[in-house]
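Please review this one:
***
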Amino acid sequence: MKIVRDKISIDELRTMSEKMFARLVKAVVDVEQGIMAVDAELHVDLEALLLENESEQDNLWGINLHPDKAEGQDFVEFDSMINIRPAIGNRSRYVENKQIRDKIILIVTQLVQK
């Protein structure tokens, strides 16, 4: 597991994805701090890592990165069990709020060097 505060290369993400069945990299983005944690079997492990490093629960959103689709719209997939939060209006695994999705895309774009 790794916290990305500056940059991570698409090649490093590709290497991480090789150990996953679907060739993806699980990530959790902190939309307040503009950072993300990557490279675990479960989003909840990445979430715990960020919480240990002063992130707040309501700012954390789980995604999947598909390095082999880095040039397309399918690079970021908004799907994680940690996203189910009825108390703040997110009732599914998908990030339902468009503003939050846009912020996640912006952060991922800033952190991933293609």
